[in-house]
Amino acid sequence: MSGLRVRFAPSPTGFFHVGSARTGLFNWLIARQQPDGVFILRIEDTDADRNREEWVGGILDALAWLGLNVDEGPFRQSDNVMAHAVSLEQLMAGGYLYYCDCTVEDVAARKGTDKTPGYDGFCRDRGLQRGPHTALRFRTIDEGQTIVHDAVRGAVEFANATIDDFVVARSSGIVLYHLANVSDDRKDRITHVIRGEDHLSNTPKQMMLWEALNDVSDTRLPVPIYAHLPLLVNEQRKKLSKRKDPVSTESFRDQGYLSATFVNYLALMGWSPHGDQEKVPRSTLIEEFRLENVSHSPAFFDVKKMTHMNGEYIRDLTPEEFVGACAPWVCPWTTQWRPTDREPLWSEEQFDPALFTLVAPLIQERVATLGEVPAMIGFFFLDAPDMDDAAFDKAIGGDPLGRTLLVDAIERFADLEWNAATLHQATIELGESMELPLRKAQAPIRCAVTGSLVGPPLFESLELLGRDRTLVLLRDALARPIT
RNA sequence: GGUCCCAUCGUCUAGUGGCCUAGGACAUCACCCUCUCAAGGUGGAGGCACGGGUUCGAAUCCCGUUGGGACUGCCA
Predict the structure, then answer these.
(1) Residue A276 CA distance to nucleotide B22 C1' (Å)
(2) Which of 1.10.10.350, 3.40.630.30, 1.25.40.10, 3.30.200.20 is the CATH number of A389-479?
(3) Cα dist. A368→A10, A250, A316, A330, A452 in Å?
(4) Which of A16, A103, A135, A301 is the most buried (most CB within 10 A)?
């Protein structure tokens, strides 16, 4: 019995940040390492101004997608306001709090040029009673130091004199983050607090609150083990911002990153498995992950690297799995979940699932994200390929040889045993008659049929497309006006 | 400004005093393969921020400097 209990406590103030996803993952990993580990989800929704219900759904969806199953919860911080009030009463009765009527401006004015402390303790001993504009502050310890025994960083020491008397409850009576958080963690019997490094500076305050609550309440609980994860930063080495950086988990899912890739890559942000292998399955993550081995320095979220890894994961799929995985992008009308703002290029009537099953293997090793799939195979389902004008000009429009070759191809393909091998051979011969290597000879045909100079293997594609359709497309290309 | 954290190739990292003329991955360059594009293969370039110590020996320990970051709300 480890009795280990961790919590993941996002606030629903926007889409699901990749940094949150990593914090959730690391908490989950730690919980799963113990047979009796408990992973708790708590929605910190007490800032009514910024929280929106729809974002809660986003958190739940994202967690489900990542496969981070929750043992207890989701709890809502807003459901605990009574408990918060009780904690506040207890601290008040224990003499840990005092009323303060200073405005933000007052505090700033007194500080003047000396911006050293946060709050100067002005109201500490004024013995104020509760009034319409009195916030409640916590009387922090003056002497000695508070040591955070961080599981990632080791001992971090704070001189108590540098910790100012912070506000625990607004003048309206609403209990603020630090107390609410500590109160909730006590209620949930949290043993390990694993969160971003941006909370490290706040930790001594929360430890003081925890000890004070131990003093004034009936239950003494050990201060949790803290672990502060290195921040995820952008290219400017700043903390990833929801406003400025492309960091929404949902958008990566929309683009067609696999859940397995995302989890694997996230784990590499601050941690690494032993050996030279970076592609590690979830089971290995659970086995090998250790807070002690988490890096101390911030990490840049490199989408390029994750994209490459996603390609590897896609290629690892069986053909059947790949077809299934593509569904939200190629036939979203059949799936429960579908990417936002990404309609396939074709309609339900135009799409042919049986044909897609045959086409899929041709592109499985060519895409790095599932979102790339539709554009690569549009010509199989569209009435006319989405013609790349520049490609057309180069291979057909402005190239007499190309046009001649198409004319010859139409004739040659008209009565030919229809399979990739014969088409391949026929195109070689077509080229030889014009002294063109195959790579030149296939270009006009590819362009005419697919609308592009790049794409899946041509002859296999023609075989699947069929003779009639191929001939139509070749003739259409010849009839196309030259720009 | 104060408090705290951090510092190995462009990026993510391995490295816990000798195995390091510093390993891997992404990105990048060259070549090979090849019907295009990818994928794959081979090879190349590229890093211990700086200065002092400690030690027979330092990327690894200590101090300082410089640089970056977080926090510093009656937000969470």
Answers:
(1) 15
(2) 1.10.10.350
(3) 30, 17, 12, 16, 19
(4) A16
